[in-house]
Structures are given as C-alpha cells and as structure tokens.
Amino acid sequence: MSLWLLNKEIIECRKCPRLVEYRESIVPKREEKYWDRPIPGFGDTNGWLLLIGSAPAPHGGNRTGRIFTGDPSGDFLMQALFETGFANQPNSDSRDDGLVLTGCYISDIVRCVPPKHKPTLQECRSCVAYLKEEVTYLKKLTHVITLGRLAFDHFMPPKTKFEFGKVYTLETGVKVLACYHPSPRNTNTGKLSASLFKSFLRKF
C-alpha cells in the first residue's frame, strides 16, 4: 500500500460508530460546510521530525479537513514551526492556505473528533494502527514529539511513564520527546510556553 492509498482508507473509515455519529452530528448545526470525515496526516514525508497530536478539534480539523488547522492549538503550533524553520508561514487556516512543512510531518492518534475531546481506549487502539503504518512511509524519521499524554501513551511501548520534556530512545533508534499538548488550557496558563516549545523543536 502507498501513503496515498492509506490516506484514502483513513478518510473513508467508519470503524468507530460513536465517533462517526458524533462527527456527523456537528455539521447540521453549522452553516459552513465541514470536512466531516477522518483526517490523514500531512507534511513533509522526507522529514526527520514527526509531531503526534491526540485527535481533531470539532471546529478545527473536523471543520477544515487538516489537523491543527483553524483552531488556537494550530495557531500556536504553526507559529512555532514557522519561527524554527519547519513551516513557510505562521498560520494554518485551511487546506488551501498555502502552508508547506519542511523537515516535519504531523499526525494524530485518533482521526475523528471525539465527544468531549475524549476518545475511548478501544477507539485509540483501533485508530493507532493507521499511525503505525503511516510511520513506515516516513523513511528519514529520526525524532518524534508527542503532544499530550494520550499521544505519548499510545505511541510509546506499554507502561512507559510520561515525563514532560524527557527524551526517550526507541529500539529503532528514533528519539521521542514527551510534550504537553498545545491546547489553550496549557498555553494560556503558561504550562507550555511558546519559548519552551520552540526550544524543544530546536533541541534535536
């Protein structure tokens, strides 16, 4: 399978009835046309850095069709990527906004927006299989930043303890940095500052 075919499979996925029902329930209440489907990763497939989030935001990725796009978390992330040379612009507004990533790829553990931002354990386990296959197409991958506990727990080997700012090394040699999610709750309170996050991006 190619990455193109994998992305096609992701977009057409309806494996989790609860997530399908929820994402489709959001759309009729809005005048704007929503993406309303699972969301594939995006970025530079020749990049050495992978950023992994948790799940799309209801009126961010679920609306625009691209993760970390059209919401405050995406604004924070893209500004940092721009200032550290990974993105050609500081904004991520829509799929046709001209954003180009260089050296990094972005993906999620869960591809559909979950109710109350909380996917179930089974939904995570079902969806993370897509991420594992996605990683096989990132041939130059050497570093990963997990954005939040959920991303860390489902990407790392079982029972690995999350420790903010710590760098772990997988058996493959890939290095993984544990980071908080760039949600407004974390960024507005200073739990994850822009300067600290940019230092993580420059760390490798």
Characterization of the model:
The mean pLDDT is 96. The chain has one domain: 3-Layer(aba) Sandwich (Uracil-DNA Glycosylase, subunit E), CATH 3.40.470.10. Helix content is 35%, strand content 12%. Strands 1-3-2-4-6-5 form a six-stranded mixed beta sheet. The longest helix has 16 residues, at 121-136. It has eight helices and six strands, in the order ααββααβαβαββαα. With 204 residues, the protein is α/β, with parallel strands linked by helices.
Keywords:
alpha/beta; Uracil-DNA Glycosylase, subunit E; six-stranded mixed sheet; 6 strands
> Uncertain regions: pLDDT < 50 for 5+ in a row?
none
Number of structurally distinct domains: 1
Q: In what range is the share of β-strand residues?
A: 5-15%
Q: Give the class from helix and strand content and strand pairing.
A: alpha/beta
- Helix % is 25-40%
CATH-defined fold name: Uracil-DNA Glycosylase, subunit E
The CATH architecture? 3-Layer(aba) Sandwich
How many strand segments? 6
SSE string, helix = H, strand = E? HHEEHHEHEHEEHH
Q: Tell me the radius of gyration.
A: 16 Å
Distance between the termini: 31 Å
CATH class: Alpha Beta
Tell me the CATH superfamily. Uracil-DNA glycosylase-like domain
Query: Mind describing the biggest β-sheet?
Result: 6 strands, mixed
* Strands side by side in the biggest sheet: 1-3-2-4-6-5
